[in-house]
Specification:
alpha/beta; Rossmann fold; Hypothetical Protein Yjia, Chain: A,domain 2; 2 domains; nine-stranded mixed beta sheet
């Protein structure tokens, strides 16, 4: 049996972009996911007192099972402690300092056998980004952060006029290419954009009735999240691929997937058609994808994807995954 890896999410962005606000929102809306959140200063997160169960030294335990730890100067030791925790956490989130390169942290998730990189989220202050980008002392740091991102959250949009936001979008595209951008205020970002764990359950989602459903939407059309505008954000797609896939071909596809996919996850058969196939877990977020050996799922193969409404490449996904080999 293959041991399950702990998903690692890295949150980056320059000072004042909204990283701690995003973390605070995530902690309040964890939805049963036990997260270990590693930060330089958890006091800056302003954790709701009603969530705090216990506090000791550099650790704050929350009533929802999440834990915040102050990492100091040794992130590696902090991650080792998280991996050794019993019972295990469901995910670990690291807030990078405002002037650091989040990709250096993300590389730990790609190299450590106990971790799996779930995504790099980089926040940008829409009201300050253009001025910061023109500062020769800041430009390199900002561009490194953007180039590391799987999702770029353009925050504080209420503080920038429409034409300024358009220039910010153009600047980000000039640096980060087609990396998905999401504009918001007060760091309001739906959980499925932040974590693959918040995607619809694969086995329940892989039915025709679930196509193009917002992952937060109930059967009666009501939404679980507080911002009703988020109900119009997503398209979802899912299938149960019956055939055996070439691992080489899948990795090539993950290197250059069609634009518009925010997240894709699933388990399917891989190997040669005329030999014993194995099971592989496929994960994709923004611009980075992985394919790893996985245990056989009890309910069979399934894939689920989300993208912004009207941008999810449903035809391309169906052509690859939902047609006979």
């Amino acid at each position: 049996m293959t041991k399950k890896r702990l998903p690692l999410t890295v949150i980056g962005g320059f000072l004042g972009a909204g990283k701690t606000t995003l973390l605070n929102r995530w902690l309040h809306d964890a939805r049963g996911v036990r997260m270990a959140v590693l930060v330089n200063d958890f006091g800056a997160i302003n954790i709701d007192a009603g969530l705090i169960e216990a506090s000791s030294g550099d650790t704050v335990a929350l009533t929802n099972g999440c834990v915040c730890c102050q990492i100091g100067d040794d992130l590696t030791s902090a991650l080792i402690r998280v991996l050794d925790t019993t019972p295990p956490f469901d995910a670990v989130v690291v807030e990078a300092s405002g002037v650091s390169d989040p990709w250096r942290i993300a590389q730990m998730g790609r190299a450590d056998p106990g971790l799996s990189l779930d995504g790099v989220i980089v926040l940008v202050d829409a009201s300050a980004a253009l001025a910061q980008s023109r500062d020769p002392l800041l430009a390199d740091t900002l561009e490194r952060q953007l180039k590391a991102a799987d999702l770029i959250v353009v925050n504080h949009c209420d503080r920038a006029a429409n034409d300024e936001r358009a220039r910010v979008r153009d600047w980000i595209t000039s640096v980060a290419g087609a990396t998905p951008q999401f504009e918001t205020t007060q760091a309001q970002v739906p959980l499925p954009m932040l974590s693959g764990l918040a995607l619809p359950d694969m086995q329940q989602a892989a039915t025709p009735a679930s196509a193009h459903r917002d992952p937060h939407e109930h059967a009666d059309g009501a939404h679980e999240h507080g911002d009703p505008a988020h109900g119009a954000l997503f398209d979802t797609w899912s299938c149960r691929p019956a055939r055996v896939f070439s691992s080489t071909a899948l990795r090539a596809w993950l290197a250059e997937p069609p634009p518009g996919i925010l997240r894709l996850k699933g388990v399917l058969r891989t190997g040669a058609q005329d030999s014993d196939s194995t099971w592989s877990e496929l994960q994709f977020a923004g611009r980075h994808g992985t394919l790893r050996t996985a245990p056989a799922p009890a309910a069979g193969p399934a894939l689920v994807a989300i993208g912004l409404r009207g941008r999810l490449p449903v035809a391309a996904l169906s052509a690859l995954f939902d047609t006979p080999g």
